[in-house]
Amino acid sequence: MDKPDKKETQKPLILLVDDDATFSNVFRRELTRMDFEVDYESDSKRVLQLLGERSYDVLLLDIFLPETDGIAVLQSVKKLNTELPVIMLTGYATIDTAIKSMKMGAFDYLSKPFRLDEVRVVIDKAMENRKLSESNARLREGLSERLYSKMIGKSKAMLDTIAMIKKVAPSDSTVLLMGESGTGKELAARLIHRLSHRAEEPFVIVDCSTLHVNLVESELFGHEKGAYTGASKRKHGLFEVANGGTTFLDEIGEINPLTQSKLLRIIETGEFRRLGGTEGISVDVRIIAATNRNLGIMVTDNLFREDLFYRINVFCIKIPPLRERKEDIVELANYFVEKRSQSMRQPKEFSDSAIIMMQNYDWPGNIRELENVVERALVLSETSVIDVDDLPLNIRGNFNFAARDKDFRSLSEIEGDYIRFILNKCNGNQAQAAAILGVDPKTLYRHLRKNRE
Fold it and tell me: pTM for this one?
């Protein structure tokens, strides 16, 4: 049976579950006078069925029920619907049990006999808390969608990467992101955090490549006052700041061996000591590490601890370089055009020739390089179309105009070399080459035939 749309029931909908018929009839009548719509049920076994049939705003649940006690019903309800606020109804003798129920997910409890104004306040708070919770959930969903939107690409390599992120995100497993500079490792780490149960907790980025060798431990673990010259007060380290959330160790391969051993201890025990401190500090953090280096080779060369490598390599995700997902270049380029051209008066787009040229470039700087190229092209382009001339020379091709046996080369020689260069970039596809060269395919064919003769 479909649940009715909440808009069909303007009044807040309450489910009252209590085996005392006399009390329930009076209570139900008073709740109705408060402008609530109330369903009543005395059989605890039917609670889950009713919750499946209608969308209730609040559940009022008696702790003592004849066949299944309220605590057991509460546990079943929370498995079915974590967002539904449950208010326990109890006598004075069972207040301890009511408090226990709150630890198990109940929103609050009401002690019989209770005042009606007290009932109204608790129910209103429960509904307001639910609205806030649902609003936060929508916000988290929106943030996740925005992060997804930045993980641009429909290539198999990219779709496989996103699938791996979705699989590992809900767990607390340590993740190692491997990929060249500019491939989007930080974005992947943010998405893993956003899709995890730690989404509302801190996401702390540690750029290991920029940490000074003498200050790295202070940054990561903090220090006590007087720990070293200049330590005028206690400082909390980045792991303490991230407690409950996620620490993203970017370029972990740059951490020195001594700090590696202390990092290993945190991963294994969740404990560390501040620099100059004697007390152990416990933290609950998830670690996501990233590197553009081959940690396996670094282990062989004794530059990276083998035990730490195995600890962070629980779940490894390789972020593909742009040259391995060239079918995503157009979508990425258009995204950056839209992103950058919002501040410009004239919308712009790439010409077919420019797109083909970009697709035939290997992008050693990956997505970061592509974004920079797009920004540069938007500035240089004087029309609504970004053309080949607006691209950097390293993408268009840079030619040596001097010949070995003479000072200059003829135009036909340079023209022939350039045509061969473009054909090579297009893997021999004459239609693509003609589009880049700006000539009719028949003209290109005649030129090639003439040179062969």
Answer: 0.60
Measured distance CA(87)–CA(108) in Å, rounded: 5
- Is residue 273 included in any domain, yes or no? yes
Q: Retrieve residue 280's tokens.
A: 């152990």
Question: Torsions phi, psi of 39, nearest 5?
Answer: -105, 140
DSSP single-letter state for residue 275: B
Residue % of the chain over a pLDDT of 70: 88
Q: What is the helix (H) or strand (E) element at residue 13, kind and residue range?
A: strand 13-17
The C-alpha torsion from 61 through 67 and 69 to 74, rounded to 10°, is -60
Report the alpha-carbon distance of residue 413 to residue 403 in Å, rounded: 10
Task: State how far the Cα of 108 lies from the Cα of 85, in Å rounded to an integer.
Answer: 8
pLDDT tens-digit profile of 319-341? 999 999 999 999 999 988 888 77
Sign of the C-alpha dihedral, residues 150, 154, 158, 163? positive
The residue type found at 210 is T
* Alpha-carbon torsion (401, 402, 405, 410), positive or negative: positive
**Percentage of the chain lying above the pLDDT 90 cut:** 35
In sequence order, the β-bridge partners of residue 315 are 175
What range does the domain containing 163 cover?
151-320
For residues 363, 369, 370, 374, the Cα torsion angle rounded to the nearest 10 degrees is: -140
Q: Count how many domains the chain has.
A: 4
Whether residue 143 is contained in a domain is answered as no
* Alpha-carbon distances of 20 from 45, 76, 89, 101, 287, rounded to whole Å: 16, 22, 12, 20, 52
